[in-house]
Amino acid sequence: MYRYSSDTGSWTLNAAFYRVSLLIPDQIAALRDRLKDRQLDVLFVNAGVKNDDGQTIVDVTTEEFVRVMVTNALSPMRVIEAFEPLVRSNGTIGVMSSGQGSLSNNTNGNYEVYRGSKAALNMLMRSFAARLTIEDSIPNLLTTMETYAGRPGLHCLDYLGRAVPW
Ligand SMILES: NC(=O)c1ccc[n+]([C@@H]2O[C@H](COP(=O)([O-])OP(=O)(O)OC[C@H]3O[C@@H](n4cnc5c(N)ncnc54)[C@H](OP(=O)(O)O)[C@@H]3O)[C@@H](O)[C@H]2O)c1
Q1: Which of 30, 39, 73, 148 could be a cystine partner for 120, CB 3.0 to 4.6 Å?
Q2: Same structural domain for residues 88 and 164?
Q3: What is the pTM of this model?
Q4: How many whole angstroms from 142 Cα to the centroid of ligand 1?
């Protein structure tokens, strides 16, 4: 964090740097343990890799595909899962995705493996954010059951009482 001193008229960087590989869960866990008494305002995972731009899904080796997918999609989520408990309740969690990860915007192909990895990251982040807790779902489930108590017929409903196609 940069801090400005009006006394000296200069900025100073107040930061600590730790080097970990996203690909090594033990290193992520070790850093989380080291920081376990801290509270984070912002958790942002920036790291990412790309493969050869011209490689299509036909050209890429399985090893290279796995490297890009694991680095760009799985590993950022592992970091987020590990560090989320340290983030303040009003804090921010983010990842560096890419416009290349947009399904709708992909009208010209190219960067196929990289695109796939960022699209996977987007989906995993969306799932992470949308994950229901028991505290969210059970009260709504009970309300839905009470609402439908005594009503004849067969209903297929979600926990909010919305009809789900059979
Ligand atoms: N450049 C663009 O136009 C662009 C556009 C949209 C999104 N992005 C995204 O922005 C992020 C940064 O990209 P960039 O362009 O700045 O690329 P970059 O210069 O290659 O930086 C990538 C960073 O990720 C780190 N990293 C890679 N693999 C890692 C691993 N296994 N564990 C820990 N750190 C790892 C690298 O660390 P080392 O140097 O130590 O390897 C480096 O600091 C990426 O997620 C990228 O997909 C980039």
Answers
A1: 73
A2: no
A3: 0.84
A4: 46
Q: What is the pLDDT of residue 14?
A: 78
C-alpha 45 – ligand 1 centre gap (Å): 10
For ligand 1, say whether the CB of 89 is within 6 Å of any of its atoms: no
User: For 127-150, b where at least 16 C-beta lie within 10 A, e where not — what string?
Assistant: eeeeeeeeeeeeeebeebeeeeee
What is residue 140's predicted lDDT score, i.e. its pLDDT? 85
User: What's the structural domain count of the chain?
Assistant: 2
Report the SS3 class of residue 56.
coil
Domain residues for the domain of 93 are 21-131
**What is the rounded CA–CA span in Å between residue 113 and residue 56?**
7
Percent helix, percent strand, percent coil in the chain, to nearest 5: 45, 15, 40
